[in-house]
Amino acid sequence: MYGTMLRMTRFTVRKLQQCNIACCRSDTLYHLPNRTSRTQWKRQVCKNGSFDVLVSPVCKGRNMSWLSCLRTRGLFLPKRVWTHSRHTVALYSTSTDSKQTAKSVVNQESKVKTSETPLRVPSEDVKLLQLAYPQRWRLTAAVGFLVISSSVTMSAPFFLGKVIDTIYTSPPEDFTSSLTSLCIMLTGVFLCGGAANAARVYLMQISGQQIVRKLRESLFSSILMQEVGFFDKTRTGELINRLSADTTIVGHCLTDNLSGGLRSLAQAGAGVGMMLYVSPSLAGFVLMVVPPIACLAVIFGKFLRSISRRTQDALAEATQLAEERISNIRTVRAFGKELTEVQKYSEKVDHIFELAKKEAVLSAGFYGVTGLSGNIIILSVLYKGGLLMASEAMTIGQLSSFLMYAFWVGISIAGFSSFYSELMKGLGAGTRLWELMDRKPEFPLNEGLVLKPEQLKGELDFCNVCFAYPTRKDSPIFQDLNLSVPAGSVMAVVGSSGSGKSTLVSLLLRLYDPDSGVVTVDGWDIRDLNPYWLRSHIGTVSQEPVLFSCSIAENIAYGAADPSRVTVEDIYRAAQIANAHDFIQEFPKGYDTVVGEKGDKFVCFALDAENEFLVQEALERLMHGRTVLIIAHRLSTIQSADAVAVLDQHRVMEIGSHAKLLANGQGLFRKLMEKQAFLQAKQKQALFK
Ligand SMILES: Nc1ncnc2c1ncn2[C@@H]1O[C@H](COP(=O)(O)OP(=O)(O)OP(=O)(O)O)[C@@H](O)[C@H]1O
Known about the structure:
- Among the domains are: 280-393; 453-547 and 602-688, P-loop containing nucleotide triphosphate hydrolases (Rossmann fold, 3-Layer(aba) Sandwich).
- Strands 2-1-7-8 form a 4-stranded antiparallel β-sheet. Strands 3-4-5-6 form a 4-stranded antiparallel β-sheet. It has a 4-stranded antiparallel β-sheet with strand order 10-9-12-13, with no helix packed on it.
- By secondary structure, it is α+β, with helices and mostly antiparallel strands.
- It has 24 helices and 16 strands.
- It binds adenosine-5'-triphosphate.
- Pfam families: ABC_membrane, ABC_tran.
- Keywords: ATP-binding, Membrane, Mitochondrion, Mitochondrion inner membrane, Nucleotide-binding, Transit peptide, Transmembrane, Transmembrane helix.
- One of its GO terms (biological process) is oligopeptide export from mitochondrion.
């Protein structure tokens, strides 16, 4: 995210110090540009050595963003403070990549309004080239070898013409020696050409693969940095497609394609030069055909780029459908929907095929015309060259050389047109990649206040919280919800299915921000806290634990800040605390047992009564001295909580101890419990029938 640095004046320093904020003139205030609304602004916090500042705009003029107040540690500073700071000094970036941050600092003196000047976004073509920049030395060497190999290739027709002339014109006594020495020399030259070509291909391939590796890495990192709401809106299949298919296309465009394209370009250039050298008049006649082909290529490329983008979108949709159905195969099977799903997938694939057909028609026309023009070039060379030979303006060797050059130029033009079409495809596929890579997450990942251990008690407060999921803005989950959980207490949250119990936890983890209202931890708005730090202080035990497809030991170590430093003893201790050690030891490979995708091989949520007791016992032990929010259905769990909150109609409708709530005969909690008891009795009856 880009922002503006404001350098302090004496006035600013004095005002900040009056508010008990230690600072000096060398400190800098950070002004983050307003993006959408004032509320969003208030969430931005920057650390600046001795103090953290948070600034928010009051209004946005045509080109200016004014700051209303500056807040730090709960204090609001009046507008006068920052307006007296010396204005914009630099643009800076709060990117998580420190190198990138350092690079993006632009030292330029300007007024505040310059911070609102939109930063120039490089075009897609430039971005594609920027990807290749780190490989510049390898690519330069590759281009050097390309020049050597192309020079050899392109000198071949000239020397072969000489060989032909030697065969036809040498006196019989010199014939053998001239021919032998010419052929030996040519063999040496061709060997050098072959070696240079091999080096070129190797260097091009390696740099291309490095570019793809970097591209995939940046894309994956950019995806993982996005806020959770982004994943609600964007389907997994689509993201996987971008990561696999689109990067492959862009990669191909920059590797084999770039390599072949450069070779064609060099050879075509050299070929034309040699044609002009051998016979300028014949070359002028032949080259008339080039301008119309170039126009055709530009028009073709434009269409191809657009079709390629649509094809990639259609492919992403198909992958998305396949991924969703395959990962939910049990549901598909249970409803017997295999054929319906196949039908749906076929429709998506048909759409891709339709686009591919359009591409095929375009390609057919383009390659047909370029192929035809190649043959016409050869025919015209023979025609005009024959006439020139008849008038003795050309020898047979020269005509042969010219023919070979014309042939090479034809091949090179065909190679270059294929390069061009692949480049257009790469640019089409790249569009979506840049969109993803340039997307700035709505929440910071690792910015904000970090409390000292003694400051963290664990008191939770939800104050007037209103919230709707980003994808379903019209169905509010909470409206003016209020809930206080004292530090070190256990609060059970109950409510009918869909009342928002899990959503409460998501807000606390700051997976989403409330639309209005605040969630606080020990009085601190969690939007001011560093989300990374906040989450590292919240332990979650989910209803459906997710295991990654690696060993049990690796899964246990996953939550550690640095899993590589976790010892076997640490893992054993963690498992013992969770009462899981004996259970894990029973597996033949113990902690090295590899659990399958989503932990399917590890049957942990179908707990039997004994294991359930063990898990419950471990949880109760771990809950001691901690603030706990339990999303509870079981009476036994609810009974052990200090208080129970009942969610209904988008807010907390009842709150109190279990006994007090149960005593209210007309209360919601009582009804919920009666319903549960009734259902359990019914289940028992059904069992004994
Ligand atoms: N990521 C999401 N995007 C859109 N809607 C969602 C999302 N997650 C949950 N919901 C919807 O929000 C509502 C509240 O969901 P939530 O999971 O918080 O309820 P719950 O009380 O925990 O339900 P249960 O007891 O069934 O787990 C539900 O209607 C659910 O469908």
